[in-house]
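User: Predict the complex.
Assistant: Input components as received:
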Amino acid sequence: MLTIKSVHTYYGNIHALKGVSLHVRPGEVVTLVGANGAGKSTLVNTICGMAKPARGQIELDGERIDGLAPENIVRKGIALVPEGRQIFSTMSVEANLLMGGFIHRKDSEQLREDMKRFYNRFPILMQRSRQLAGTLSGGEQQMLAISRALMSRPRLLVLDEPSMGLAPLVIKEIFAIIRELKEEGRTILLIEQNARGALRIADRGYVLETGKVVLQGEGRELLEHREVKRAYLGKGAKQIWEA
Amino acid sequence: MPIWEPEKECMSRGDLRQTQLERLQATLNRVYRNVSFYRQRFQEINFNPEDDLTELGDIERLPFTRSHDISDCYPYEMFAVPLREVVRVHASSGSTANPRVVGYTRQDLRNWSNLVARILSSGGVVQDDVVQIAFGYGLLTGGLGIHYGAERIGASVLPTSVGRTERQIKIMQDFRTTVLVCTPNYALVIADRIDQMGLESRKLSLKYCICAGEPWTEGMRGEIQDRLFVKATDNYGVTEVIGPGIAGECLEQCGMHIQEDHFYAEIIDPDSEKVLQPGTKGELVLTTLTKEAFPVIRYRTGDICAIIDEPCACGRTMRRISRINERCDEVVIIKGINIIPERIGDILEQIKGERPMFQLVATRRGHEDQLEIWVEVTEQLFYDKMREQRALLDFMCKKITNFIGISPRIKLVEKGSLQREGGSIKKFVDRRF
């Protein structure tokens, strides 16, 4: 579904992505793990149109999407649950959801139906539908952010660090939600620092190190891999055996 | 016949190319970081994987790796992980100055078992089979490679190893072996012995014979199939690349499917080193895409074949390579052992301090291959007394056996009698086919 070929992205002088290729097939959960600064978020930004790749190409179902504006990429069917949730905190929960469905705004029937579905799934959001989103707890905000993204009826859901800044119990809940989404057959690209949690859910994973993919494989294979632990712990220093 | 990993073995060519690109990038990033041999070679041509590998075709810029590069890095210099990550070490038959040593991480072994499982499945093996493995167990990759793959399928494995043919046959009969894994010649040796013992092959439970390890012909396949009442398939392995598991025939018997999601195959003209189109015969060059402990980049196998780029009736989308009957270097393959004639010369030279004129001759007695070494007699090699003469030949034979692992017959011949070609002695004469 999503195919990325040799993408290079720069932030000013910084070469943040150095020829990254990856793919996500329909119905798959693919995770990207790596230490801080490995380029995970840059890749998300590049996929979603917030950063422009200098080289390489990104295809969604065979159609080039690199270089498109973020709103057009949403129309093509990619929705992002951004790092730090980024909900509209001064708007009500309901307004947040409607904003998520902005591209379908002419079809109010569908929006209402979708909203009802998310209220059923997360009753707490229904209870707080008129409340300002900023007053929600971290976990509730994350549920809202995920629901908001799904309101655009995406083909591919990109989750950027969904567990960040949440309490361990809440993280468990968020991972349970992701697992449910997977069981529904949704296609997900999951970016996580919590490599263990992410790889347990994922069908496949890629390990990024300083802007390059150095390892890829099935989730459970990577889970046991020593180098993953190293990447996750962020040991950038060379080991003795590295010439 | 079931396909072991249909989602991979039957993936579309587009998906395959994407997978190959991703894996090649990861492999090159890793060797560039971890293996000084490759880093130097890449730096010499100013190639940095993170900048210069945009498409698969960019691999053609990279230099080849040859077998002597690997023996020069003896034993561990080419490993891409520290030894504590390595859980298995194998080595090629000791026919070069230093054997070529390869290592496997835990993940490599998992992948390897899976690849061999694919090949055994394509040759007909299923969980219910009883698989007799008559390959040598040891530093060579054949025995253990097949063993792990057969266990991965869940078949019952009989690790009988090589030799003791009558015992092999007794086991085959009593343990109701359904799949025999051995060199094609050994399959025929077994057939001969079954006849001599007055047994009937048709009463055995054998269904399939998985053959590899040496060049063989369609004629031999026919004979194995007719005499052992089996379906016989060919498969291909190279120690330096992984061992068995690189390519294997399906029951259509029309070429060996390369496991292209794990190996990138090219065919080159051995002289001009240009990459050739599918369908053209040339030297097979392999790059590993998933190996961690011992990745190899553009390894020249020395084996001559063509890539068959046509759909196969079995449904697998992986392209095939044609049967391998020739080599483009001097390596002689007898009983699954690779022998370089010059190395034999080195040993003969050690014995008397002088390099004799010699020639390797492969012969076939019945169905057994035999290596003969014909040496032109000189003053130094000649004794008046029969006993001393015999002792010298025995000593030579022992020295060489120690080195290559099979025992040759040594024949002294008259000066100037060896077959010459353009003034120099032909190093190898094949009288098997």
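Residues 182 and 206 of chain A are 18 Å apart (CA to CA).
Let me know if you want any component modeled separately.
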